[in-house]
Amino acid sequence: MSKITGNTETIENAGSPAFDRSRPVEQVRAVAEQGLERSKEAFSKLSSGAETTQKAFESTFEMTKTTSNEVSQQMIASLRANAEAGFTHLEALVAVKSPSEFLEVQIAFLHKQIEKSAEQAKVLQALMLRATEDVSKPIKDAFEMALKELKAAA
What we know:
By secondary structure, this protein is an all-alpha fold. Helix content is 86%, strand content 0%. The protein is built from three helices and no strands. Helix 2 runs antiparallel to helix 3.
């Protein structure tokens, strides 16, 4: 083994004389605080978005319930009207005195039922279209609001 001869310094004297130990600590603290603030903002936005989505779903479910009740009531009304028309038609058929009168009553009934069925279908179609729009509106509004917030954040 050889011995190193010469001038040696201690490690304490080898560092930079202008090195400030508190500066890296402050920088790390500042970065950590920025990260914490960003995390708080992200959590706040996420929480707000989740709350908005929950409200939209609740509104959608309530609207679904309401519109399904309206559709059911319309269907029941249509079925009731058709049943009553059928009984009225049977009463008219019982009172028929000739084959030609039977044919007239039958043709008139069928004609009326076709018109009534077309009208009922139009009413039901309009109700279903409105129901679809009403049910999808809260989710659509929440989605559009989220897109606007995303665009504003970018």
